[in-house]
Design brief:
flat, 5 helices, about 220 residues, two-stranded antiparallel ribbon, single chain
Length: about 220
Amino acid sequence: MSLADENASLEAHVTGPELEEVLGEDQADRELLRLAGIRRQTLDALEVAEGHVAQVAAWLADRLGVKVTVDVKAVAVKDDGSLERDAEVDGGLAARARMIEQRLELYHRARLDEDPKALSVSLPSGTLVSRAGQWDWNVTDESALIAWADAHEGEDGIVSIVRRKPAPDPEVDKNALKAQLVKRDGRKIVARGVDPNTGEKPPGLEVHEKDRTFRADTSDV
């Protein structure tokens, strides 16, 4: 298949089925294969562009009499073959790749609903990987949190979340905070940012989980 035919096939595919349609396993594998093709085209385009830019930079340097450096790879390629995008995608290969990645994410979310242990799904044309979001601990009012900690220090499970030396003023110890203000059911953590005994949320502290991440690894295809 020529490059033009492959592009036409990809264009028809990504503008066809509704995004909300959840894929089956065979469809997901075909999507991974198409995604790998788009990523190869992207790398080829970057390589061609790099050659042209190098020529223009050399001409400009000769014209101006000063060294000119231009980095064509403003769009970085990650190890899994995907693009590190700093700007919104509004067309071209990047938009096609993003559409397929969204469909694969829907497929992987459905698999996780069926089996919470399916964090990695291996298919012939690549691997889908999901990671739980990290927890964000944000101290919004340090004075209020320190006052609460002083009032609760010594209780079961709370040693100290305040560091007093060598700092001139008391400050919250973020590591101690994350270690102690968790509520457990046996070994399982059931709540974060709370009094481990009562489940009370301390003042001056906000804790929330960031969104789960999904990625499609086509680096071996």
